[in-house]
Amino acid sequence: CFGFPLSIFFIIVNEFCERFSYYGMKAVLTLYFTRFLHWEDNFATAIYHTFVALCYLTPILGAIIADSWLGKFKTILYLSIIYAIGQVVLSVGSINDLTDHNRDGSPDNPALNIALSMIGLIFIAFGTGGIKPCVSAFGGDQFEDDQEKQRSTFFSLYYLSINAGSLLSTIVTPSIRASECGIHTKQECYPLAFGVPAILMAVALAVFVIGSKMYKKVKPQGNVMLEVSKCVGFAIKNRFWHRSKEFPKREHWLDWASEKYDKRLIAQIKMVLKVLFLYIPLPMFWAVFDQQGSRWTLQATAMNGDFGFKIQPDQMQIVNPILIVIMVPIADSLVYPLIKKCKLNFTPLKKMTVGMFLGSMAFVAAALVQVQIDNTYPVFPAAGQTQIKLINLGAVPATVQFQPQLQSVDVAPNKETGYMTFETSKLQSLHIISATLNKTQPLDLLEGERHTLAFKWNPTGINSSLVKDNITSKPADGKSLVRFINNFPFTVNVTMGDMVFGELDPLFASNYSVVPNPGWSYTISASGPQDTCTVDSKEFGYGGAYTISLDDCVENKLIITHFEDIAPNTVHMAWQIPQYFLLTCAEVLFSVTGVEFSYSQAPSNMKSVLQAGWLLTVAVGNIIVLIVAGASAIQKQWAEYVLFAALLLVVCIIFAIMASFYTYVDPNEIEAQFSKEEKEEDKKDQDYNEKEAEAHSKM
Fold it and tell me: What are the beta bridge partners of residue 286?
């Protein structure tokens, strides 16, 4: 088809669906841990990076199975089945109603949900990791030796399908996750957010199977990684047995394998080990890079995602693939040629060093954003303290004196004060003066709590009500809270949308309730003895807490006043774009260049060894994050960002020093030299045999 084997179209569609499945699931994973399983941020981060590390450890296993036992086709087929089962198990594990027998909105047996989720993730890790080194190589096997151009086009289409699947899924699955679903109670729709990737993985498997009769299936030919491991192991063992001084030293420790392995293999392994030595500092970059899906997503939950339309916190990850698509061609066609024109020797290792530096700066930018977020957080009372806010619901200004003689505050009609902090033991009562009336309000305040005093002047006296707020922290995950105060002289029944707040007596306040979608407007209804009055609310900010007073009813239209108890998220998600930009620049310089450099410095039959080493650095990087998240005593998130930035900067300097001692080689020249020497040896052997035969014939 257009000069291509028909089978490769099945492989490309399979890869698109598989990448959609993986990145779609991974995009919502951190919020699933924190919002559904209710794990705290550090533990959720540790489990997330454990999963990613496992995804990058299993490719080594997949490559060995494919090359030494099952072959690429069967390895992809069997592991894809495990992969699809894992996605289904994860989706089932996220069903809230699975064990919610009392229908209160919370699983009665959360251990079952956790167990299913972990089993599903382990299956997914083995599936996606195991097929990772096989699919692209299997696609390459479909071409004949004279189809080099078509093979190159295939790899371009292959990587385009990866980016397309990643991009599309990062838009779709967070949007599905943010919608609500459920049998008994409506909550964030994780079953469908994981279910869609499960369906796509099933489609990927079906497409792959449909094309099975068209594939060229190369038989397993042995795995070079095992051969390398055996050679290295023999060299170490042989050197150990000949460690005494009576045995002469050899030029390189690998030369101790020469008794069993040929010189060409040993020389090839030496080239590979030189590159692998440079890999030692690289995991620190991946420790920083892969926090886009964990720490940076959690950071976005405390930010304002209003771009004229609502961006979900887990959708901000889409900035990276978008920038990659833009910046890779810009770097190749504009930046690098410009640097070359300036006659600067911008070698691959120098590019990687600059990439690590930019990765460090990305986390400095993240720390600066985190400081701005932290500055917007409310200050809650410490031990021995209490906080109180005043709301004047009357039409007459008032003065409130805090007794004994602590301070005095003026409160305008239908206005509020901010929360004021006092030593609990010192604040005994409030004296309210409004017009010609006054009232002393005794206080029984709880230590470490916030309280609200609502009061109202009327001709017969001053009515007041003290309410405990029951909020000890800013609403998490971008949720908003709302409560109502009845400013009518009679009892009213209050609803907002589908939420029922019940009957409220005069000047009494309801408990806070979570606003399902803070960006929406809801119809507020107050039913009194005679009439029902309604009005549409304002949109609630994300991460805020509000008190709404029900003031009056004019022609069945409810008159209300909004009071802000906790300010919503005000730092905009757009402020994350600079850190994503810096990290994407780092990825272009580090990752793209790193793979290219590694392949250019390795013999053709050793490229899979370097691929395994490269993937191993990603796994180790994620292990670093889970160790820091699990063991760190750092309380402030901005300080952790600075820690990672500093560590990467130190590693960047170490890598620059190591790179300065590296000598670039051309593996093709070295292999050509060995081929020439082998031909000369063969010619000598042939000449010797001919002479022997000639001498024998004369006898």
Answer: none
Closest CA to 308 of 539, 474, 516, 475: 539
Interval 185-241: pLDDT, tens: 778 899 999 999 999 999 999 999 998 888 888 787 776 778 888 888 888 888 888
CA distances from 246 to 238, 241, 242, 249 (A): 14, 12, 8, 9
CATH 1.20.1250.20 holds for 278-376+572-669: yes
Chain position carrying tokens 């206080």:
443
Among 269, 267, 266, 285, which Cα is nearest to 277's? 269
Contact 140, 155 (CB under 8 A): yes
Q: Distance between CA atoms of 614 and 636, rounded to whole angstroms?
A: 32
Q: Which CATH number fits domain 385-566: 3.90.930.60, 2.40.33.20, 2.60.40.2890, 3.90.245.10?
A: 2.60.40.2890
pLDDT band of 694, cuts 50, 70, 90: low
Give yes or no for residue 77 having a pLDDT over 90.
yes
| DSSP type of residue 570 | -
Q: How far is CA 469 from CA 99, 443, 475, in A?
A: 32, 15, 13
Q: Which amino acid is at 338?
A: L
Residue 424: closest CA among 450, 405, 401, 400: 450
> In the chain, count of helices (H) and strands (E)?
19, 19
| Comparison of pLDDT for 27 and 675, the residue scoring more | 27
DSSP 293-322: GTHHHHHHTTSB-BSSSBPPGGGGGGHHHH
Note the pTM of the prediction, 2 decimals: 0.83
Residue 310: Cβ-neighbour burial (10 angstroms; 0-12, 13-18, 19+): middle
Distances (CA, A) of 560 to 393, 516, 551: 11, 20, 5
Q: What is the pLDDT of residues 572-628, one digit of tens each?
A: 999 999 999 999 999 989 987 887 787 778 776 677 777 778 888 999 999 999 888
263-278 vs 607-631: helix crossing angle, rounded to 10: 30
Name which residue leads in pLDDT, 609 or 696: 609
Q: Which tokens is 599 given? A: 């392949």
Q: Which fold has domain 1-222?
A: Growth Hormone; Chain: A; (1.20.1250)
- pLDDT single digits (tens) 95-105: 988 887 777 66
Three-point CA angle 655, 159, 659, nearest 5°? 10
Are 549 and 391 a contacting pair, CB within 8 Å?
A: yes
% pLDDT > 70, the chain: 94
